[in-house]
From TrEMBL:
PANTHER family from the UniProt entry: OS04G0367600 PROTEIN (PTHR27005:SF37), WALL-ASSOCIATED RECEPTOR KINASE-LIKE 21 (PTHR27005)
First and last residue of the signal peptide: none
PROSITE patterns the UniProt entry points to: PROTEIN_KINASE_DOM (PS50011)
Record key words, sorted: ATP-binding, Membrane, Nucleotide-binding, Transmembrane, Transmembrane helix
InterPro entries: Kinase-like_dom_sf, Prot_kinase_dom, WAK-like
The organism's place on the tree of life at top rank: Eukaryota
Provenance organism: Oryza brachyantha
Any matching Pfam family: Pkinase
Transmembrane residue ranges: 6-26
Name under which the protein is recorded: Protein kinase domain-containing protein
GO terms under cellular component: plasma membrane
Lineage: Eukaryota, Viridiplantae, Streptophyta, Embryophyta, Tracheophyta
Gene3D superfamilies for the chain: Phosphorylase Kinase, domain 1, Transferase(Phosphotransferase) domain 1
GO MF term list: ATP binding; protein serine/threonine kinase activity
GO BP terms, alphabetized: cell surface receptor signaling pathway
Amino acid sequence: MAVQVLIGVVVCVLAGLFGFLGWEVIRHKRNIRKQALLRQTDEYFQQHGGQILLEMIKADGNVGFTLYKREDIETATNNFNKAHIIGEGGQGTVYRGVLDGVVVAVKKCKEIDESRKMEFVHELVILCRVNHPNIVKLLGCCLQFEAPLLVYEFVQNKTLQELLDLQRSRRFHVTLGTRLRIAAESADALAHLHSLPHPILNGDVKPADILLAEGLVAKVSDFGCSTINEKTQVVAKGTLGYIDPDYILEYQLTAKNDVYSFGVILLELLTGKRPLSKGRKSLTLMFQEAMEDGTLVELFDNDIVDEANIRVMRQVAELANQCLVVPGTTRPAMATVAAKLRQLALADEVQRCPPQQPLVLEDLSYMEMGSTMSTWYGQSRTSGVYSLEDKPVLSVEFAR
């Protein structure tokens, strides 16, 4: 009996010892992994210019820009759970998250080139200072992942692209006054970006990047990966139907490229038609032919055209025509376009139009929002990047 008790005690002691040693091994491995992750996180931070950005922020004082920690981003997005995805595109994936009790959009960018590290940091410093009611606010970033993450304010509603699609399907009526107001707000936002000491050029202006907040207030996005100055691009960026023919020929990004793309958006708002038809005939070409033939009124959207506001619509068409002039050196500046649109939006004919009915958000889950109500924050499935080898294929005729 005593022997059995002794054996039992020894077995218990050995089991406890092995259990303790096993736990220590597991804890040691966890610490090793934790230390490795910390080293890797620090390497990413340095690699993306985090220390340089930190010094710039300190030197600049309170710029309202936050450097978020890796664990905060992981918690906010539930470790980048697919259920939190609200947009995917060529430059990255966008997740919905909650940071410090505030709903935000976390954009997981594609990797940046090591040679662009300093340029990327300077862009962030410039972008974080952009403060305009019609521009999506960049709140901060996280540089502790393999690729940088940008944190934007969350705008929960539809994009202008989705609003136009609703109008085309007759599921929602958008008044002329609302269209002109959205256009004026968007133009004002682009004009503000162009007017900065270091101008920000979008290079891919399209309805999918104009978010619509409560009250259908326009919020321009997709400037987080924009170009800060005018320089030749290695590859072309843009969306078919909106690309400036000048850019296709020269690959030199300028403010006039944004003006051209915005002119196409004006045509969409006036006509309700897509920039490219199923037969690949461009709306710009149809518009120019209608201007020459004197059949412009036939091209206008029947839902908004009437004798009372035809004068205003013709003036908007003339403004769009000025934006689409090729070559683009004679195109008006975005500030001029914005001022003219504000004036037209306040015209008596427009003010007498019936009020805009409110757009009520459907009660959708975030997964459903990803496909039907997604706020793309800079990306859409229509966005494309074209290599230099494709240049001959993208003719001026096709871009127009």
